[in-house]
Amino acid sequence: xxxxLRSLLTAxxxxxxxxxxxxDPQLEGTWTTKSRKVVTGPVSAxxxxxxxxxxxxxxxxxxxxxxxxxxxTGISYSFTKDGFYEEAYYRAISNPTTPSCPxxxxxxQHGKYIKHSNNSLTLSPFAVDGRQLQSNPCQFQSSxxxxxxxxxxxxxxxxxxxxxxxxxxxxxYRFDGSPMNPMYLAYxxxxxxxxxxxxxTAASSTGxxxxxxxxxxxxxxxxYAEEPLNKYVLVKRREPINTDKWWWIGVGMTGIGGMAYYYx
Length: 264
Description:
alpha+beta
């Protein structure tokens, strides 16, 4: 066998050995942190009809483009045994220099994951489906609602009974080895939205995620205004804003202004 062909086959064998089954049966289920207030999956009918009167079940409604703020912060991951995942984050970020200006971030995305033979995971989201709602009250008068897509590398993970309450516990470690908050099994089989692209757009073929801009509901009609994060946010669908277009327009205008200043 020629040496170049032998090297190529060896490299291919190494690549194949690095990736084993698409998913892991141990990961199957919906996992959530101790607050148990952040959970992936479909939003319950009670939450849709009476969002302020019942405990919220679910996080993101892709059909009506609605995000529901949980009662407490937390993280939730769901995994299927055949290689799909969904995640939901609700985080508060303190501001030590200005305590009256804390920030809040709500994030949701889903996609496919691969387990590797070194016990690491790679999570690849469906780029056009992810959503993020960010609140910075001292910088913006309202929340900023955008598409969100973040590839994730989990360096390692473990599934084992918690040493104190014996409940099934999932520990994930970020790409740099730092641990995430432990999560506990909430549902098995997992509670998830459909494992396919939910919001296909014309830009989805390019894999690009475009921000949607800022918006809020208006119960008096189809007018758009702004809404702070500390409400049970219901955000209506809007067409994405092409930020690349406006960035290039800004560059062009800056260049024209510079030339005018230099020659005039």
